[in-house]
From TrEMBL:
<dbReference type="Pfam" id="PF12399">
    <property type="entry name" value="BCA_ABC_TP_C"/>
</dbReference>
<dbReference type="InterPro" id="IPR003439">
    <property type="entry name" value="ABC_transporter-like_ATP-bd"/>
</dbReference>
<keyword id="KW-0813">Transport</keyword>
<dbReference type="InterPro" id="IPR051120">
    <property type="entry name" value="ABC_AA/LPS_Transport"/>
</dbReference>
<keyword id="KW-0547">Nucleotide-binding</keyword>
<keyword id="KW-0472">Membrane</keyword>
<dbReference type="Pfam" id="PF00005">
    <property type="entry name" value="ABC_tran"/>
</dbReference>
<dbReference type="GO" id="GO:0016887">
    <property type="term" value="F:ATP hydrolysis activity"/>
</dbReference>
<dbReference type="GO" id="GO:0005886">
    <property type="term" value="C:plasma membrane"/>
</dbReference>
<keyword id="KW-0067">ATP-binding</keyword>
<dbReference type="GO" id="GO:0005524">
    <property type="term" value="F:ATP binding"/>
</dbReference>
<dbReference type="InterPro" id="IPR027417">
    <property type="entry name" value="P-loop_NTPase"/>
</dbReference>
<feature type="domain" description="ABC transporter">
    <location>
        <begin position="10"/>
        <end position="258"/>
    </location>
</feature>
<keyword id="KW-1003">Cell membrane</keyword>
<protein>
    <submittedName>
        <fullName>Branched-chain amino acid transport system ATP-binding protein</fullName>
    </submittedName>
</protein>
<dbReference type="InterPro" id="IPR032823">
    <property type="entry name" value="BCA_ABC_TP_C"/>
</dbReference>
<dbReference type="InterPro" id="IPR003593">
    <property type="entry name" value="AAA+_ATPase"/>
</dbReference>
Length: 260
């Protein structure tokens, strides 16, 4: 696999999160290293999505802290996470269905666009140059994801697997340092899963992007991850390379007790 694993990029320290009486996460600590592909697995309701939501500032834990690139914080808002280079896709596709593939991916450039309406009016030339640069970046992503033939198609008309690929494209448009993927393969057929795996590996390899993903397909997880963290009932019960986690009795027991 591509770029060498680097230093710790994200440090999660003793995070606890509850909703009323429900403890979604209890004392979770984990590290994510630069250029790593880390999978978070666990039975339904284990706290996987909550963990991603804490990392990108959607949920605010009652306890613990997050250190990203050396900066520790107890509280962060999603737009701050995005500004710091964390992009995310969702379990349910969150695209503008009536808009074209190209325009949807362009929305991922929002944070990178500096010129306001006023500066566009005053400095038309520079705003236009900026727009061209953004379009070039988006075209690069479209080439990378091999979706040139559908660039003008409204997203709502595409099969599910391609919509997921467009969603990945929009996240990539932000040129993130860290990418959070919430079940990127859910609902896909075998061929679509293979394609998505290849793109995830290529993103990691070619752009060096650090990837944290939640996935239920164990074959996929064991294939593409450098490391796997296992949650069960909001607690961390495993953390290590795929081979180690696969043979861990506590992990096996957690999975045998569920439908996964
Ligand atoms: N916004 C919320 N309000 C109340 N409870 C919540 C909320 N989000 C998550 N929970 C609860 O926290 C626990 C962990 O949920 P979470 O969605 O993080 O699990 P998960 O591992 O992602 O599950 P799945 O695999 O089913 O997506 C569950 O008991 C869930 O009901």
């Amino acid at each position: 696999m591509g770029q060498a694993i680097g230093d710790v990029l994200l440090k999660v320290d003793n995070i606890s999160l509850s909703f009323g009486g429900v403890k979604a996460l209890t004392n979770i600590s984990l590290d994510v290293r630069a250029h790593e592909i880390l999978s978070i697995i666990g039975p339904n309701g284990a706290g996987k999505s909550s963990m991603l939501n804490v990392i990108n500032g959607v949920y605010h834990p009652q306890q613990g802290s997050i250190t990203y690139k050396g900066k520790t914080r107890a509280l962060m808002r999603p737009h701050e996470a995005a500004r710091q280079g964390i992009a995310r896709t969702f379990q349910n596709i969150a695209l503008f269905k009536g808009m074209s593939v190209l325009d949807n991916i362009m929305t991922g450039r929002n944070l990178k666009m500096r010129s306001s309406f006023l500066s566009q009016a005053l400095y038309w030339g520079s705003a236009q140059r900026e727009e061209i640069a953004h379009r070039l970046k988006v075209e690069e992503i479209i080439d990378f994801l091999e979706i040139q033939p559908i660039r003008k198609t409204p997203v709502g008309r595409l099969p599910y697997g391609l919509q997921k690929r467009v969603e990945l494209g929009r996240a990539l448009a932000a040129e993130p340092e860290m990418l959070l993927l919430d079940e990127p393969m859910a609902g896909m057929n075998v061929e679509e899963k293979q394609d998505m795996c290849r793109f995830i590996l290529d993103v990691n390899d070619e752009f060096g992007t650090t990837i944290v993903l939640i996935e239920h397909d164990m074959g996929v997880v064991m294939d593409i991850s450098h490391r796997v963290v296992v949650l069960d009932y909001g607690k961390k019960i495993g953390d290590g390379p795929p081979d180690k986690v696969r043979n861990d009795p506590a992990v096996i027991a957690a999975y045998l007790g569920t439908t996964h």
